[in-house]
Amino acid sequence: MKILLVDDDVELVGMLRIYLEQEGFEAKAVFDGENGVAEILSRRYDLAVLDVMMPGMSGIDVLREIRRTSQIPVLMLTAKGDDVDRILGLELGADDYVPKPCTPRELAARIRAILRRSLGGGDASGPVTAGALTLHPESRAALWHGQVLDLTSTEFSLLEILARNAGRVMDRNELSEAALGRPLARYDRSIDVHMSSLRQKLGTYQGGRSFIQTVRGRGYLLVRV
C-alpha cells in the first residue's frame, strides 16, 4: 500500500516514514500543500495523511482541492483539542483524524483501519439493498434511486452498516467501532459529522424528513423507503 505524508515537520515525517516502511507500507513525503495536491492527484497513492497546520496551503485547503475530483482516503493530523479543524476536515470529506502528538504505532493502526474499509473485503452474499438504496461491498459502489452516490470510504462503511440494519437503531459507539475501527471518545463528533454529510447526499422525503433519522440518546437508523 502506498501512503503519502504531507506535513512541513521534516523530523516528524522522517520518523513516521521509517516506521511505516518497517510496517510494510511504501511511504513518500512532501512538505507543503501545493506539492501535496499534485502528488495526490497523480492517483498513485492508496491513502494520504495530511497535516492541518502547514504554512501557505494548509491541510484543509489541500483536502478541499482534492475532493473536487478525488475520493482517495484521507487521514488528517490535527492539533490536540482543536475541534474546529477536526469537524471542518470531516465535513470536507476526511475519513478520520489523529490528534498530534501521535505515536507512529497509532498512526499505522488508523491507516490500516481506513484501508480495510476502502478496499472492502466484500460480502459473498452480493449487493445490499434497503428500499431505493443498493450497495455493492466488493466494488464499494453505492446507488441511490439508480444514481451513483459519491462517497468517501468511511461514508460507504457507515451507510452499509445502516443498510444492513435498516429500521433498527444503531448506537453511535457501535457505529464508530464498526466503521472507524475505534471506540467513540468522549465529545467525539466524528460519527455525527459523517451522518450529516450522508443526509445531504441522500436528500429528504415526505415533507423534508431525512432518510437517516436521529433517535435521541440512542443513535441513528436508516428508513427503508
Topology:
Elements: E1 2-6, H1 10-22, E2 26-30, H2 33-40, E3 47-51, H3 59-66, E4 74-79, H4 83-91, E5 96-100, H5 104-118, E6 128-130, E7 133-136, E8 141-144, E9 147-148, H6 153-164, E10 170-171, H7 172-180, H8 190-202, E11 204-205, E12 209-210, E13 212-215, E14 219-222
Parallel strand pairs: 1-2, 1-3, 3-4, 4-5
Antiparallel strand pairs: 6-7, 7-8, 8-9, 10-14, 11-12, 13-14
Helix pairs in contact: 1-5, 2-3, 4-8, 6-7, 6-8
Q: How would you describe the overall organization of this protein?
A:
The protein has 225 residues and is an alpha/beta fold. The chain folds into two domains: 2-118, Rossmann fold (3-Layer(aba) Sandwich), CATH 3.40.50.2300; 128-222, Winged helix-like DNA-binding domain superfamily/Winged helix DNA-binding domain (Arc Repressor Mutant, subunit A). The protein is 39% helix and 24% strand. The protein has eight helices and 14 strands. It has helices at residues 10-22, 33-40, 59-66, 83-91, 104-118, 153-164, 172-180, 190-202; strands at 2-6, 26-30, 47-51, 74-79, 96-100, 128-130, 133-136, 141-144, 147-148, 170-171, 204-205, 209-210, 212-215, 219-222. It has a five-stranded parallel sheet with strand order 2-1-3-4-5, with helices on both faces. Strands 6-7-8-9 form a four-stranded antiparallel sheet, with helices on one face. A three-stranded antiparallel sheet has the order 10-14-13. The longest helix is centred in the middle third of the chain and has 15 residues, at 104-118.
